[in-house]
Amino acid sequence: MNKALVMIVAATLTLGLASPASAAIRITKIYFDSPGADTGSNKSLNAEYVQIKNTGNVRVALSAWTLRDSDKHVYRFPTFRLGPGKSLRIHTGKGVNGAANLYWRSSSYIWNNDGDTATLKRKIGTIASRCSYTGAGSYKVC
Question: Which domain holds residue 34?
Fold first, then answer.
């Protein structure tokens, strides 16, 4: 291998350009119709959630990423890092943020029971993942 090629490969690896799939954050499930009657209680609101997973092999900072629905409700991620292979649920209601659960802190339902689209955007505004459903059942595996 010539010296110039070695330098290009080294620079590419150093900048992280060689493995864009190593940080794949995906929406994996939307639980849009919480069990039982929609009472609006915090328990019912928190049974509605979007699950995302880091399918890559590096930890990803999700700080300032957004999750939104078709009606333009927007959740902004706090300072948060998702480890490789780890999943996270963003619940609609109130709660204490932790390693596997974040809370939108909404007092009303976000995800429409008859269909909606969840869009996960990176800090720079590009789409990382999107999942739509039509309302059949109570959840959608993406």
Answer: 23-141
